[in-house]
Amino acid sequence: MLKPKATATRELTSLDGVWRFAVGSTDGEPWRGPLDGTLEAAVPASYNDLFADPAIRDHVGWVWYQRTVRVPRGWAGERIFVRVEAATHTGKVYVDDQLVAEHVGGYTPFDADITDAVTAGGEFRLTIGVSNELTNTTIPPGSITVTADGRHQQKYLHDFYNYAGLARSVWLYCAPRVRISDITVVTDVDGSEGIVDYRVEATGTADVRVRLFDATGTEVAGGTGANGSLRVPEVTLWQPGKAYLYELVAEIVDGETVLDSYPLAVGVRTIEVRGTQFLINGEPFYFTGFGKHEDTPVRGKGHDNAFLVHDFQLMEWIGANSFRTSHYPYAEEVMDFADRHGVVVIDETAAVGLNLFIEGGVGRPDKRPTFSPETMNDQTREAHAQALRELIARDKNHPSVVMWCVANEPSSHEEGAREYFEPLVQLTRELDPTRPVTYASFMFVTPDNDRIADLFDVLGINRYHGWYVANGDLATAEIMLDAELTGWEKKYDKPIIMMEYGADTMPGLHSIWDIAWTEEYQTAFLDMHHRVFDRHEAMIGEHVWNFADFRTTNGVHRVDGNKKGVFTRERHPKNAAHALRARWHRIGNRKPTTPDTAS
User: Fold this and answer.
1) Is the pLDDT of residue 532 over 70?
2) What are the coiled-coil residue ranges (predicted)?
């Protein structure tokens, strides 16, 4: 799943901008001809917050984007594609009135080969339909109800707003008929030498040549054939906080003629789980950072390069070395940026909400089973498997990605959980045997009732002692958290990372007492957790929930969204950001050897 790039043999043009826009019907009936009306929408952006009309914001079903595209006249004889980086959650692509591609899954890209439907130098009408509908067989799951007055309402089980539309870029690009279709790179280290194993896939029979260049542009290794291994003398490793990237140039050649060329950034590094340690390049690594969201005012989940740069600057300022792509794959630009800047990534699928135990309330005994033919079933698992295939196909070559996260907060203590997840974990290992696999368990799963923890290399846990339980009583919360971590350590003897811990905080609300929602309470809450983490040898990291406040669905416990960010939605720091900065700059990439009383 190669990202479109401009090379000596390929060209691309951005289709980002302002498109014509219309709200469609709930049955997905395609538009024929030009769109009606005067609405226009920005691409990339979620459409929900662009308009003042609540009917558009709350629409359930299809919306339609349309624009006129001219194919460059120099592309005659080339294969021509439309690339949609994300259509949340189902996309359809039309050239004039011809359907040329469909895709299910809102956070991974897809291509439409439109070669036979367009002419170089000519124009065509490009229409993209996007549906935001979620069901029990989609990832993430949801359900649709019809109100008494006939309105369709989308219910979903994840605690972030169901933004929809074309949230990432759309491209028109061309590539040769005989071309490189995929590249897979795996790296290792042998003494002072780096090892770069590669596999190049091509359309048709082709002769392949590869060359590896260092950061100065000097060729340091090369080979021929679609599969091979390159050795790099005196290798410079990709390291957390100190990124170094080589460039692998794969070429299809006919004698001395280059038919196609594709460059790929390569970071040479190793990953290993050994006992209760997580090793990068043979050195113990301690994760500090956040669960994040692609969420900004007006744009929703729309990718924005200015926010990309600013968010990474804030992570550098605060001393974070990593983040999790909660709860879906992020834009490819985010992954590329992490590669270039040495930021470590736990890469997660959109499998959030596989949990009916907390549907409409916490721990109610009359809840439907999560895993059953009527709820999360074999079709759900296949959609989940496809999400894993597409995530790994897209992100397998990123050196920043050190772990795959299969799901967030599934109901892993329920009957049927193991039957659901065991094939998915096995699939993940088959697709990529080089990276550890994890998941994020939810609050009411314990070491004694969890049915799937043994399947994973690293235990990721989301806990809110001092917030959802023992709220305002940090002394009790500390005892509870300490006891639970001890339980996980004793039973599994695996690395543990706290994937989520946090407290909702209203900026500007203060108190000298432990009052929930105040900035002082958020800081004290985090300090308590850090004291506990530092007492447990198996702890390999801490990801605060959340980097920044974010939009959620309507709810009485959500005032203008989730307020657990240490930055506001506009990226202003709360007091806790300064406390985290002091701790994380002090400990760097290494776990504290004694409890951090200075936090």
Assistant:
1) yes
2) none
Q: Which amino acid is at 318?
A: I
CA pair distance 57, 224, nearest whole angstrom: 54
User: Would you state the structure tokens that stand for residue 255, as one six-digit string?
Assistant: 């004698």
Q: Which CATH class is domain 180-269?
A: mainly beta
Among 123-127, 276-280, 312-316, 511-515, the range scoring the smallest mean pLDDT is: 511-515
Q: How many residues would you count in the chain?
A: 599
Q: Which CATH number fits domain 272-587: 2.60.40.420, 2.60.40.1120, 1.20.1250.20, 3.20.20.80?
A: 3.20.20.80
SS3 147: coil
Q: Residue 241, Cβ neighbours under 10 Å: how many?
A: 13
Is the pLDDT confidence value at 171 over 90? yes
Q: What is the pLDDT of residues 561-586, one digit of tens each?
A: 999 999 999 999 999 999 999 999 99
Instruction: Note the pTM of the prediction, 2 decimals.
Output: 0.94
Q: Tokens representing 192? A: 């002072």
- Could you count the other beta carbons within 10 Å of the beta carbon of residue 305? 10
For 20, the enclosing helix (H) or strand (E) is strand 17-23
Listed by start position, the domains of the chain span 11-175, 180-269, 272-587
Catalytic residue annotation: 409, 500
In the predicted model, is pLDDT for residue 360 greater than 50? Answer: no
Q: With a cut of 60, say whether residue 41 has pLDDT above it.
A: yes
Per DSSP, the residues of 495-548 read -EEEEE----B-TT---SS--TBSHHHHHHHHHHHHHHHTT-TTEEEEEEE-SB
pLDDT exceeds cutoff 60 at 366: no
Q: DSSP E strands: which ranges in 215-297?
A: 219-224, 227-232, 246-254, 257-266, 271-274, 277-280, 283-284, 287-291
CA–CA gap between residue 220 and residue 239 (Å, rounded) = 20
By the 8 A CB rule, do 462 and 441 touch? yes
Decide the pairing of beta strands 90-95 and 123-131.
Answer: antiparallel
| CATH H-level, domain 11-175: superfamily | Galactose-binding domain-like (2.60.120.260)
Residue 73 has what DSSP assignment? G
